[in-house]
Amino acid sequence: MNSKVAQFLLSVLLLLHSLVASARLTTPPLPDFSGHDLAPLSVADDTAELATFGDAIDNVVIGGVPKGARVVVVVFSDEPEGGYIGIVDRSNNGVIWILYEGKLPLGLYELEVIGGKLSARHKNQSTWTDISLLHGLGYDLSSIQKVLEHWECTHSDLDGLTVAAIEARFAPINQALFASVESDSRFVPGDSEGIAWLRQRLDDRKALTVLHPERGRRAYGALTRHVAGSAAVMLTTGLGTGTDVSPEAAYLYLSAPTVSPRKAPSVRPRTQRSTLRTQAAQDLSKNNLKHLAKHLEQFRMLDPTMELGDIIRLGDAIMSDSASLASRAGAKNQFFQAVVDVGGESVLVRVVLNRVGKMNSVHIRPE
Amino acid sequence: MEIAWTIDYTGEPIDPDDVLGSIFLRSTDGEIVDTCVYLVDWFVVLIDGLLALRGGESLQTDLVSEPDPVVFLAAEGAAKVTYRGVSLTVCVSDLERAIRDSGRRLLDFVSSRSRTGTSLETWARMAEFLGSPGALKAE
């Protein structure tokens, strides 16, 4: 009788074992996220955002784990306001950057959506901490849940490394990567200057921070974030061995908007700093200012001393002359254009107003 | 053909007149990415370009708030969309589907998140296009 019971229990155990084994083998296929609002966010390449969120970048710890061939890389900062989480979305060949509110110690965390909230759990702890997504990011919790459902986050050999350590580890890879990017036709010819700048900055961080500590630190933070992300993608995808994410694709996706002469921070020592803020500037939204700043580098290529306030003042001056009105009647956006002198060169500058008459773009028109 | 967008976070409520973000146009042969742009400008240009292509016309359009034009080149079989030196080969019907899918999501997002909620005059042309499939003529 005892023997029959033991035999029965053994068969049950074997059945359970085979069920578990088969469950492991039937991992759902990678979903196609195209069409979902899962495109990566662009907060990471914005130096204004980094003023708030990027200062602790040197202490960011990266961790990532492939489940099968799939990858999640999670990046947390320990800033009091919140930090970034990066999830590598291989279906988009990129990283989804999530900005969260809350305080988490440095480390690698698992992410789950629990009770309708995004929660994080340190790999060595059993308790979950709710974190909130900052509003206005263009996608919702259910989209993130779709990603999390198909990936598992545990620690990997990147776990516990600081960005600085990862940089050192991936320096040879990054150098090779930049070489491949240089010959990539997807970069416009002028961008070779941007690549050279990037390489120089990576090689000579001290020069950047000494010459312009604040700007250098923030810009370097953005750069490091992109490069570290690329390196993590490369590592976990086996440097293109049989995967559909090439290092070039990862790099281009993460860095292309950043690696540009227009985005490169000026390291020129300044003799004076313009703090001009006009009435118009005070009325402008953060979005307006951010977009104006985007085109600032156009002007700086002609006059490196120009600041955002100078651009706004120039826009005000052009708008004040009704003869400069260049948009047609009834156009969605009114705009003014005038030929002005910038750094000794005559250029056509356009000033665009939004529906309620706020300046939302000032840029140099191509010849 | 896929069109995706993201919203730039500024800490302020969404202002429907100045929705800033990034746009991603992906086709089998490449990707056009433009960051820190007024998304409505891009969608208006895409709609104008689509309408031109539908009529078999090529079009060079002005993004208004950006210095570089977007060029829509009509051709037999497949059209081309070019921006800042990057060209995508697109099927016109795929382009239309992508504009409608992505545009609808954006309009819904802006409507639901904007501070003023209903003040969407800036988005009128896009709303008209999305509401009137096939009935709109190029401006």
SS-based structural class of chain A? Answer: alpha+beta
Radius of gyration of chain A: 25 Å
Q: What is the residue-averaged pLDDT of chain A?
A: 49
CATH topology of chain B: Secreted effector protein pipB2 fold
Give keywords.
heterodimer, A: 367 residues, alpha+beta, 2 domains, 5-stranded antiparallel beta sheet, 12 helices, 11 strands, B: 139 residues, Secreted effector protein pipB2 fold, 4-stranded antiparallel beta sheet, 3-stranded antiparallel beta sheet, 3 helices, 7 strands, 29% strand, globular, disordered C terminus
Structure described in brief:
The complex is a heterodimer of chains A (367) and B (139). Chain A has helices at 2-25, 47-53, 141-148, 163-182, 192-203, 205-211, 213-236, 247-255, 279-283, 286-294, 296-300, 308-319; strands at residues 61-67, 70-76, 82-89, 94-101, 109-114, 117-122, 129-133, 161-162, 335-342, 345-353, 359-364.
